[in-house]
């Protein structure tokens, strides 16, 4: 199984209220072991998954948002967030947590994993994939 | 063409498992291959052999068990999603100290790696969900 495919995980739902976001992240983490070319997309309410300062004490479910910051260690370094989805929800990049990775091709320099893209750019990113898993 | 199938919604509440069933039947009839179906999220609930729908309704689990047997389809139920929702095979029930198991014939419990592997090994991955 040496073949490498482009995998895109599309995250469209809020982090809590349904289990889709958490179980999507579980696929991403397991999938990392397969050394595929992985990209994550966040659109619609999915952009809330990356919001900083999440506190779930009041609802009795686990706050899994810190896990996103570990994705770099799994070589998952491309997190695309749709600009229009942020704007429609009154959010900007400043409302998202900072997620960094160390670029092994650039002397391990720390670089941001989150990239804000337009809806049109997101369509191009999707069209470029081999496997799309939507959550 | 080799098709991988993902079912990500539960039976009866959502049509996903029914539509996937019709799709797979049609794809096979047209000569395509469907080596594996992966059940995730509430889709894992399809695999319980304890569901008893009214007699004049389709039985979604039995449909899948029969189709899998006829065409040697690997029906894989995600272990992490299954454990959350109370779906256990004999081994898992023993390992978790539970007094019963409920996985139907033709289904097997395994890891999410099987989903990724299916994505790598098939020509198209088709998801049936909400």
Average pLDDT reading of chain B: 97
List the total number of helices of chain A. 3
Question: If classified by CATH, what would the architecture of chain B be?
Answer: 3-Layer(aba) Sandwich
Strand order of the largest sheet of chain B: 4-3-2-1-5
| Proportion of helical residues of chain A | 10-25%
Question: Order of strands in the sheet with the most strands of chain A?
Answer: 6-3-2-1-7
- Characterize the largest beta sheet of chain B: strand count, sense, and whether it forms a barrel: 5 strands, parallel
- According to DSSP, the number of beta strands of chain A is 7
Give the helix level of chain B as a range of percent: 25-40%
The ordered string of helix (H) and strand (E) elements of chain B is EHEHEHHEHE
Describe the protein in words:
The complex is a heterodimer of chains A (135) and B (130). Chain A is α/β, with parallel strands linked by helices. Chain A has one domain (6-134): DsrEFH-like (Hypothetical Protein Ychn, Chain: A). Chain A has helices spanning 20-31, 83-88, 119-127; strands at residues 6-11, 37-42, 79-82, 100-103, 109-112, 114-117, 131-134. The longest helix of chain A has 12 residues, at 20-31. The radius of gyration of chain A is 15 Å and the shape is globular. Chain A starts with 5 loop residues before the first strand and ends with a strand. By secondary structure, chain B is α/β, with parallel strands linked by helices. Chain B has a single domain (2-128), classed as Hypothetical Protein Ychn, Chain: A, CATH 3.40.1260.10. Chain B has helices at residues 16-29, 60-71, 79-84, 90-95, 113-121; strands at 2-7, 33-39, 74-78, 107-110, 124-128. In chain B, β1, α1 and β2 (33-39) form a beta-alpha-beta unit. In chain B, α1 packs parallel to α2. The two termini of chain B are 25 Å apart.
């Amino acid at each position: 199984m040496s073949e490498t495919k482009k995998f895109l995980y599309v995250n469209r739902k809020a982090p809590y209220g349904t289990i889709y976001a958490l179980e999507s992240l579980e696929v991403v983490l397991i999938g990392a072991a397969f050394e595929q070319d992985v990209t994550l997309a966040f659109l619609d309410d999915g952009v809330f998954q990356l919001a900083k300062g999440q506190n779930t004490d009041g609802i009795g479910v686990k706050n899994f948002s810190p896990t996103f910051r570990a994705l770099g260690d799994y070589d998952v370094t491309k997190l695309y967030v749709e600009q229009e989805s942020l704007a429609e929800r009154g959010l900007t990049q400043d409302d998202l947590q900072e997620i960094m990775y160390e670029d092994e091709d650039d002397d391990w320099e720390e670089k941001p994993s989150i990239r804000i893209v337009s809806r049109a750019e997101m369509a191009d990113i999707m069209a470029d994939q081999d496997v799309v898993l939507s959550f | 063409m080799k098709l991988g199938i993902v079912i990500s919604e539960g039976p009866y509440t959502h049509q996903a498992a029914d539509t996937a069933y019709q799709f797979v039947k049609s794809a096979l009839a047209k000569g395509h291959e469907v080596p594996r179906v992966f059940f995730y999220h509430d889709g894992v609930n399809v695999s319980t052999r304890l569901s008893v729908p009214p007699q004049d309704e389709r039985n979604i689990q039995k449909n899948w068990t029969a189709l899998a047997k006829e065409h040697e389809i690997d029906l894989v139920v995600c272990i992490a999603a299954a454990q959350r929702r109370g779906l256990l095979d004999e081994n898992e029930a023993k390992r978790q100290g539970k007094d019963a198991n409920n996985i139907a014939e033709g289904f097997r419990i395994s890891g999410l790696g099987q989903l990724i592997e299916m994505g790598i090994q098939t020509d198209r991955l088709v998801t049936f969900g909400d």
